[in-house]
Every structure is written in C-alpha cells, then in structure tokens.
Amino acid sequence: MWDDAKALNALSVTLAAMAVAALATAAVLWAARQDVFAIREVVVVTPLERASGPHLEAVIRDELNGTFFSMNLDAARAALAKVPWVRAVALRRQWPHRLEVAVEEHVPLARWGADALVSAAGETFVARYDGDLPRFDGPEGHAAEMVARLARWSATLAPLGLAIAGLELSPRGGWRVRAQRDGAALMLELGHDDPGARLDRFAGAYARTVGTLQRQGVAIEHVDLRYRNGFAARVPGFREAGARVAAAAPKGAR
Known about the structure:
- This protein is of the alpha/beta class.
- The chain has 6 helices and 13 strands.
- It has helices at 5-32, 53-63, 73-80, 143-157, 195-205, 210-215; strands at 41-44, 86-94, 98-105, 108-112, 116-119, 124-125, 135-137, 163-169, 175-181, 184-191, 222-224, 230-234, 243-246.
- 19% of the residues are buried.
- The model is unreliable at 23-34 and 246-254 (pLDDT under 50).
C-alpha cells in the first residue's frame, strides 16, 4: 500500500476531509455555546388560570440552561411540568433569542382522597384548590373510571334534584354514591353487580318512594340498592333494622 501512490493520495484526502469535518463540528458546537446565541426572552403565550406565573418564572430561571442551539428542551419541559396545575408544556424557539412557552393546565373535577385532585381527563395530580368538588375514594388507578361514572350517574340523579357529592369504590369493587339534596345527605349503596342498572331502578322508583317520604318530612339518610327486587331505606331514629321500600324491578334483577 505504501508503494501505491493512488492509494496514499486517496487516504490523504479522506483523512483531510475527516479533519475538516471534525474542525467544523467543533467550531459549530463552540459557536452554539456563545452568549451571542443566549435566550434573552422567555414568554408564556397562553393565559394562566390556576398555575402560578411567578413559580413558572422561577423554574425558567433555574432550569432553562443553554443557548438557542444547546438548550435541552426535553429537560426544560420536564422541569416545567412539575409546577402545580401544569398538565403539559410545549416549547418553541424563535430566532434569535426568544423562547415561547405554551402551558396546558389541569381542569379540576373532583378530589382524590384528602390530598390530591382529579382532572376532567381522569388524571390525578397534587395542587391546592379551595372550591367545592365531589370527592373520590378508591384504589389507585381507577380515577378515569370514576370520572366516567360521575358523568353518567350525575345525569341519572339530576332530574331528581340530587347532586353527587362523592363516589366510593371499595377494593372489592363495590360502589357507593354520596348524594345531596337541599343540603341533606343521602348515601346510596350500589354494590358491585351492575351498579348503573341499580341506580336506574332507584331513579325510576324515587318519586313514589323515597321522594314521597322526603316530601312528608321524613329524613332518609341511607338507601341500600343491593336487593333483587327492591331497596331498603334507613330512617334516623327508626327502631327496626330498616324500612323496606318496594321498588319495581325486572324479574331476576340483582
């Protein structure tokens, strides 16, 4: 090979090209880190309803390192997503010195236990919220299911003047609904077998049973819907085990 002039020339050209490429790459990387390309303006382009602007600014100052070319956008998004109420973040660089931040916020729908919230998308998150929300209590991983149940069952109970104040799902899959009407609480025990059908049966019989008793001034605080062809209403101060209220139901209903 060392006696082959053509081969030596080809090798020299290849090595020279690699050296030039390496130098060019190094020059570009060096230039990209210079202050002349530093991000000088960071703008939140979406209006903030619940997320803290000062908190976002503090994270931006602390976490958004690098220049227009060298900034790690994935790391920046991850840092900003930790701010309370922030669901997702989109970052866009605008030449030569501007970074635009678009923030998608969580929309609160319910409380998850005592310490967290559930969004309308069925996601749990931690943030401070002082407004009234229904409360969910259940095993981890069931928030989205409970959001769907809340929507369906609220539509079932709303014509009765009942609003859902909470949903409970036991580890064994049993459902309970905490409802309210005119400030009075009503617990509905649905169990785990076809709870939606049981609630529909209750709604169909409400006017002539529990609704009638309530209009007569009888306080009903608990209704057990886990009967095959009816349900039981608990009256405070009633001496028996409970007052059985008949309700029409299809044959074989559980």
